[in-house]
What does this fold into?
Amino acid sequence: MTSVRIPRLRLFYGWWVVIAGALAHAVTTGLGYFGLSAYFPSLEREFGWSRTAISGAFSLARVESGLIGPAEGLLTDKLGPRRVILIGVGLSVLGFLLLSTVNSLPMLYAVMILGIVLGSSLGFFVPVSVVVATLFQERRGLAFGIFRMGPGLSGVLMPLVGWSIVFWGWRMTAAASAFVLLVVGLALARIVGRSQRLQESRTDDIADAPSLTADLRVKPGTQNSDHPIPQVEFTLKEALGSFAFWMLAIATGLRHMVTEGISVHFVVMLVDRGWSQELASSMLGISNLVSVPARLGFGWLGDLLDKRGLMVGLLIALGIAALFMGWFPEARVFLPSMVIYSLTYGGLASLQESIRADYFGTRHFASIQGFSRLITTCGSFLGPLAAGYLYDLTRSYTLAFSLFSGVSLLATLCMLLARPPVAHNGSRS
It folds into this structure.
């Protein structure tokens, strides 16, 4: 009797990078991004600093991250993702160790700006997003959707951070966070390094297999099917000279103004409304977890539908949710609004890198992405600072969230104007 040999399906190694990147992104976001919001009430109580002053540390950290965005992109192109990850991990670990010793406002600013935020961006976001954009084309939206599930999955860590601060203190929590980031960062660097070696040595490794087992590295202008798709590669100079680049960057920056402002002040706002610090931190974690299905779902939808149209709809919903969160503190209104906010936030986060790669190609993706962050970071800077200033002025977040609602609608207009650019050869990306 002749035996039938069943071919073994191999998972394309790019998906391992996506999964590892998502998990590492979850840890660094839970500890060094959303997690820092849980420190807000403790810093205010211990040092008596105003919310504008504390918010300034968050805002300037975002500005610094954006200002060096071009350098991060060029550095990734020059040194390679693995080396940049190791540099970033070292900075973020050192930042958290120094955070545990903070005793002045200038030191807080320096630790957050030069250590935690810079290290997180270098080590866990920029190099991984470059690898994902390069490895995937046909299912790029899905790949970024999975990668951007990381910040949503960070919601699991938020209650732990909140409880740790309450029971062991914020200084001990910061020191423990440094150790966790070191372990996770080294593991990510190893996986990314292996994927690069495999990519270089197995350029002909295109598996004729369905779904996620397929190697999605395709030649420009082709798909994993018989249907050709147009593919263009913009240089950095060409991208900067396109109207679409600026409209997309401004729309993303305005979106960041809304979501950064809300995330930084989320915990302390709920504490003002009578929630305990532990429960408020847990609610921020739940908000992140709620965004997970949207990050994955809209990433998948982006491969099937018009990404720009999806982002327009999400921005409108974001503005409505922000308005209701600010005006109605009652749980029966706030909680459904928070769910809508979380879903829209997650969907927008999963689409923004994917649409940029679709518009401008991947050959110079790191540099183009880095320069776009110069624009988007303006929103990241203004959001937390504006919310803190308006709170100190009115002793309420109502006006700040009303502002965020209007900003979301302005971002919608910019997104409508961000039509796909036309390359010199007349083809669209």
